[in-house]
């Protein structure tokens, strides 16, 4: 599975101060703060300042991304958690986390980025959590999804999680993916989903879009209107500035909503 691999460049801007600005922007678009969004996703109250979380750097495969664990840790601290990056990596890091009696461990190799809830024996992966979070953010930004047409572009692991959320909220979903196998798998689970062979068939008429496909030259200016809302977890952002300036709202970040959602769903 070809995982997107973040670079240090993608995340080095993430600081507590930056996160407070990002929070204000998120509130403007969705009506919820990141803290409120955490509890919205979890569908329960979360006492974050009682949560002890270890982020363990993993050297496997392509190795450590400088700043990655620190960025994850800052996002969790911004939510009020007692989060720290272990001094040790890999198994020694897990051992250190257990010795510190943590509630959760966050760790990523090249294939999976997971939140492990040690008390509840639950593991939540970033792809599922990210799809779920971006669909929820689109819902809030759109003021609800019941009977609304939504387009999901890319139905891999992130897109599939977004699809599940959208359907659970009563959205009418149209999907596009260049991989016929992914379309087939999706239709087996969701036979009522509409499939298009080209986004031109339904854009710009459909104005709510979850864009998970990394391919850049997909959405052009004529595919969007000034009412269009795009929730796009893909990195790097596959949208040109004409599209970004034209649409009503863009929901996008390299790591934040995925990490918040991992905590919410692992709690
Ligand atoms: O620094 C470390 O511990 C590295 N092992 C982290 C590797 C993360 C690889 N995955 C990614 O860059 C992206 C993340 C957004 C989560 C999923 N894929």
What does this protein structure show overall?
- With 267 residues, this protein is of the alpha/beta class.
- 39% of the residues lie in helices and 17% in strands.
- The chain is built from ten helices and eleven strands.
- A six-stranded parallel sheet has the order 8-7-6-9-10-11, with helices on one face. The chain has a five-stranded mixed sheet with strand order 2-1-3-4-5, sandwiched between helices.
- α8 links the parallel β7 (172-176) and β8 (194-195).
- α3 crosses α10 (256-266), α6 crosses α7 (157-168) and α6 crosses α10.
- The longest helix is centred in the middle third of the chain and has 17 residues, at 126-142.
- It starts with 7 loop residues before the first helix and ends with a helix.
Structure keywords:
267 residues; alpha/beta; 6-stranded parallel sheet; globular; binds ligand 2YC
Number of E-type strands: 11
Structural class designation = alpha/beta
Name the helix and strand elements from N-terminus to C-terminus, one letter apiece: HHHEHEHEEEHEHEHEEEHEH
Q: Considering DSSP H and I runs of 4 or more, what fraction of the residues is helical?
A: 25-40%
Bound molecules: ligand 2YC
Apparent shape:
globular
The major β-sheet equals:
6 strands, parallel
């Amino acid at each position: 599975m070809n995982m997107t691999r973040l670079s240090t460049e993608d995340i080095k801007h993430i600081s507590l101060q930056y996160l407070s600005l990002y929070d204000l922007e998120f509130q403007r678009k969705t009506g919820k703060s990141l803290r409120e969004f955490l509890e919205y996703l979890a569908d329960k109250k979360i006492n974050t300042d009682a949560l002890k979380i270890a982020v363990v750097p993993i050297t496997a495969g392509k190795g450590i991304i400088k700043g990655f664990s620190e960025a994850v840790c800052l996002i969790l601290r911004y939510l009020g958690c007692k989060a720290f990056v272990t001094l040790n990596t890999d198994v020694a890091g897990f051992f250190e986390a257990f010795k510190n009696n943590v509630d959760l461990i966050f760790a990523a190799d090249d294939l999976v980025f997971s939140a492990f809830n040690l008390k509840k024996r639950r593991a939540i992966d970033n792809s599922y959590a990210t799809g779920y979070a971006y669909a929820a953010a689109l819902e809030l930004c759109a003021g609800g999804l019941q009977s609304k047409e939504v387009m999901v572009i890319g139905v891999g692991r992130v897109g599939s999680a977004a699809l599940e959320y959208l359907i659970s909220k009563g959205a009418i979903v149209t999907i596009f993916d260049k991989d016929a196998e992914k379309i087939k798998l999706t239709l087996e689970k969701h036979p009522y989903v509409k499939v298009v062979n080209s986004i031109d068939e339904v854009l710009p008429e459909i104005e709510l879009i979850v864009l998970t496909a990394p391919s850049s030259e997909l959405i052009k200016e004529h595919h969007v209107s000034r009412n269009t809302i795009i929730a796009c977890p893909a990195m790097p952002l596959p949208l040109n500035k004409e599209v970004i300036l034209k649409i009503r709202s863009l929901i996008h970040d390299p790591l934040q909503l995925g990490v918040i959602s991992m905590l919410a769903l692992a709690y």
